[in-house]
Design a protein that fits this description.
calcium ion binding; calcium; globular; two-stranded antiparallel ribbon
Amino acid sequence: MKKTDLIIMDLRQFLTCLSLCTAFALSKPTEKKDRVHHEPQLSDKVHNDAQSFDYDHDAFLGAEEAKTFDQLTPEESKERLGVIVDKIDADKDGFVTEGELKSWIKHAQKKYIYDNVENQWQEFDLNQDGLISWDEYRNVTYGTYLDDPDPDDGFNYKQMMVRDERRFKMADKDGDLIATKEEFTAFLHPEEYDYMKDIVVQETMEDIDKNADGFIDLEEYIGDMYSHDGNADEPEWVKTEREQFVEFRDKNRDGKMDKEETKDWILPSDYDHAEAEARHLVYESDQNKDGKLTKEEIVDKYDLFVGSQATDFGEALVRHDEF
């Protein structure tokens, strides 16, 4: 089997199993499928600056990158942090705002997404021009399958291609059917972009709405998560989900979820951890209390932002308390 065939096979599995480009485990009858997109925690460490700044390091850099700073001297940490500050200062005005910090933290936390896009990029950018056109994506993903009107695996590739094209056009902001890397990221991971959320909702409803009436009723909602598979008794979590549908999902009590109710379900307005951490970092580092940070203010508090093998945490706490 050629490498290209393997790539296409992997992509078909990816697109089939990930209707929202989010991994859903293959469900056993008693396991729950979760379509809800929650903002993940910034770190698995406790956020307690009185004990350590490990949470802040993970939040600011991402957990994997944070580990690399632990092996650096304070001087090396400060130097690398200064380079990062220049990247965070998006408008190059010499200051880092809460908004810029929030954007940086979100980007650092989504590194696995950008790595995923990088891994796929070269396979789709056939002419190596730094862009991916819809034709390039279609040819790599569907080319060999569209020649076979009745594939053995039972997938309707023409229907899947139409759905992909719709999403590609939504991600393509300027409408030229050519995706930049950011637009291609939005295409592969639409749940991460505000302007793509309508397509996430639309695709979800199409997956679950079996009678195609434009709504999700109770049985469709349960059927997406659970298959009776000959079992007469439902697990407790299924009974709980039925109650959740009636009490919380179906807000207008008409027995079904419309587009807005579905959006509230799968894309809830979660607590914004990145915004809270950005506010915290500014508060702790803003020496002149002007609401924004200079590179000097950030580097001076380098131990809050990044680690170092020689960081004296006791001394850091003294400086922390001075503010």
